[in-house]
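Contributing new records

If you add data, match the layout below exactly. Sequence lines come first and carry their own label; structure lines follow with theirs. Keep one chain per record. Anything else will be rejected by the validation script.
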Amino acid sequence: MTERPAHFTAIAGGFQPTAYAHSHWGEDHLNGPAVVGLAARALELDHGSPDFLPARLTVDLFRAARGVTTTIATRLVRDGNRVRNAECDVLQAGLAVAHATMVSYRRSAPPPGEEWRSTTEFGYPDGPLPGPDEFTGPYVASEGLGWTRAIVEHQNAERTRFLDRPIDVVAGEPNTPFVRAVMIAESTSLVTNVGTRGIGYINGDLTVGLARLPLDDWVGTLADSHWTADGIAVGTATLFDRQGPFGSGMVTAVANPTAQIDFATTRFGGMRLQ
């Protein structure tokens, strides 16, 4: 069996980033899915419960995380009967590179009546997807082009969607559905900020809202909105699996043209897109 790729390895006193965690925004930077995935994993392990759904996670990315030993400190803020709040810091050299807050709601029966529901279609690529031991990267689609494996083909001004089975956060630990959802939600920045010259906005946060957890290994994002002014962007996307939509992602981002990621000129080799 092929060794499963992962963003971090667990070591004494913390986690060591692997080559898979590296970002294309800068040398020795870590990518967003690695950082938010590590935060989600810690909060779920320390403060999750089968009776509660982790319905909202917000991660503020304070500074560029580097390829050095990383630790996590979590705290339970409130342990209520219906609402549970927890937070954590992602630390490197004693400094917080990210701060995350998680809100969990006790699962219950829905109220009576019918509500509005989006009628957007969420399609998957034709044919079988790669198996559990095949890590071949994501699928990307944009209006009129359909699904392909090359993001450069979708550097346009059209609505974009993204589908992936994220690699494990920590080596030897398969991602939980919650961690998988959070990592894919980070692609909200990709599907909302990609344009004709690649990606020139870098997100400083991620907010994930979940009505349920994903039921599939392969999870997608579909761009919903993208608003920009004065070098600042706000983007939202819907998270979906084969059963349909189950949550939303939102990012705010700032223009970063000196480190523009143009997929037509950047070589990605065997690395992940992020």
